[in-house]
Amino acid sequence: GAFQALRGHLLRRVGRNDEARAALRAALTLDVDLIQAMQDLLELADQPAQRTAIVREFCALVVAGRTDGSSVRFLLDPGGDILGHEAMRAWLETLRRAKPDLHAAVSALIAQDIARQDLASARVTAEQACADFPLLLRAWLDRAAVARAAENHDDERNALARAAAIEPRSEEVAFYDARLAERCGDPERARGI
Questions:
Q1: What is the pTM of this model?
Q2: Residue spans of alpha helices (H) in the chain
Q3: In the predicted model, is pLDDT for residue 68 greater than 80?
């Protein structure tokens, strides 16, 4: 997969675009998490209809293939812009049903709901994710993000405490904990974190 992605990237750089498209598609068929191959293929698209077809193709590959979740995170922004947020939400729900152990799909749903200010849906999804993935740092950070968006300091503090219990030296947890302390008017605590 990686060799085909590199080959496609180099072919694209020298202007052999048809060969580049073929190599990039072959790479993504082997490994859907080759983000640079996805990016290169999207950049080769001349028309909006081509970009739409490519994003739909990526979405199908991710549902059918093995992924560590990086492809899901990559697809969230261009996919929402190209397909529309409702279509991306439907795809994320499909992906979540197809791969219930893939937290990246759940995390993307939560991020999308927060961005759309659908905090009730984001909260329900985040609570379920914490029940399904109680030892996963990202699940608790997502729950803290929902609480932050809702300006619920107690829930955010509790979620960050659970995250810190999972990974005590997480810089991300410390960062959000310090920001929470600042928002709560406790700059002394924020400096001590």
A1: 0.80
A2: 2-13, 17-30, 35-44, 48-64, 70-83, 85-98, 103-115, 119-132, 137-149, 153-166, 171-183, 187-192
A3: yes
